[in-house]
Amino acid sequence: MGKNEYFCTLILMRMKKYVYIMLTMVLFLSSCAGEFNKVFKSQDYDYRYEFAKQCFAEGKYQRAVTLLQDLITMKKGTDEAQESLYMLAMAEYMSGDYESASATFKKYYQSYPRGHYAEHASFYIGQSLFESSPEPRLDQTPTMGAINAYQQFIDIYPSSPLRKRATERLFELQDKLVQKELLSAQLYYNLGGYFGNINSNNESNYIASIITAQNALKTYPSTKWREDFAVLIMKSKFELAENSSQDKQLERYRDAEDECYGFLNEYPDSKNCEIANKFISKCKKVIGD
Q1: What φ, ψ does residue 191 adopt, rounded to 5°?
Q2: What angle is formed at CA 115 by the lines to CA 111 and CA 118, rounded to 5 degrees?
Q3: Long-range Cβ contact pairs of 84-91 (< 8 A, separation 24 or more)
Q4: Distance between first and last Cα of the chain
C-alpha cells in the first residue's frame, strides 16, 4: 500500500467512526426526546410527576419546568402540592430564569407560609432577585426588591442558617446602590464642566452633584466610598463658585472654602488634600481674607 493510499484509508476510517458516533448521539437524543414527549402527553399525572422529579435530579431543569408548570395545578390539594410548587421554583432558578423563580418562590411562600420549604422559599425570593440585579449604572428596581426580600427573610427567620448569607448579600446590594449614587454624582459634576460657560445648565449640574452626594452620605454614612463623595462635594462647590454670577460668587466661595477645611479635618492623610489646599488659596484671593 502506497503512502497516499494509507492516509486515504486512515481518513476514511476516522470519518466512519465520526459518522457512527454522530448517528449514535442522534438516536440517543431522539430516544430521549421521544420518551419526554410521551411522558408530557401522558394523562398519568403521578407518572409525569415522578418523571419530572427524575429530570430535576438529573439536572434537566428546563424539562422539569415544562412538566411541573402543568402539574402544580393538577397536584393542588394533594400531598405533593407543596413539593411540586417548590420544585418548580428551584428548577426555574437553576435554569437561570430568575424572574420566574422569584415569582414562584413568592407564590409558594404566600400559599404555604408554614410549609415544609417556607424558610428556603423566603430566602430564594431575595436570592433570585439578587441574581437578576443589574450593574450599578442601570435601573436598580430588582436590587431594591432583593434588599426588601432579604430584610424580610432576616426579620422572620433571625436564627436561620441562611441568615449570614442573606446579610452578606444585603450589604453587597446596598453597595451597588451607593455605587449608582456615586456614578450619578460624578456624571452631574462632569456635565457641569462639559458646558464650560456661566449658565443655568452649568450651575444646576454642580448643584445636582452636591445634593446627590450629600443625600448618599446621609443614607449610607458608613459607606467605603465616603471620601469619594466628599471629594465630589468639595470640587462641585468650588466649581459652582467659579461659574456663578458675580452676585452669588462671594457666598459660594465662602461655602467652598468651608467645605475644603472640613475635608482636610476629616481626611488629613488623603491624596486629595493638595486639591483642597489649592482651592482654599483661590477662595481666599476672591474673599480677601
Answers
A1: -65, -35
A2: 85
A3: 84/49, 84/52, 85/111, 85/112, 86/115, 86/116, 86/117, 86/120, 86/121, 87/52, 87/53, 87/56, 88/64, 89/121, 89/124, 90/56, 90/124, 91/56, 91/61, 91/62, 91/64, 91/65
A4: 103
In one-letter notation, the amino acid at residue 65 is V
Q: How far is CA 90 from CA 83, 99, 164, 175, 212, in A?
A: 10, 12, 21, 27, 39
Biggest CA–CA distance in the chain, Å, is 103
Residue 222, helix vs strand vs coil: coil
pLDDT tens digits, one per residue of 120-130:
999 999 999 99
Torsion of the alpha carbons at 210, 215, 221 and 225, rounded to the nearest 10: -50
Residue type, 181: E
Rounded to the nearest 10 degrees, the angle between the axes of helix 226-242 and helix 246-266 is 160
* C-alpha separations of 196 from 82, 183, 185, 206 in Å: 63, 20, 18, 12
Q: Is the pTM of this model over 0.85?
A: no
- Predicted confidence (pLDDT) per residue in 159-192, tens digit: 999 999 999 999 999 999 999 999 999 999 999 8
Residues 6+ apart with CB under 8 A from 106: 121, 125
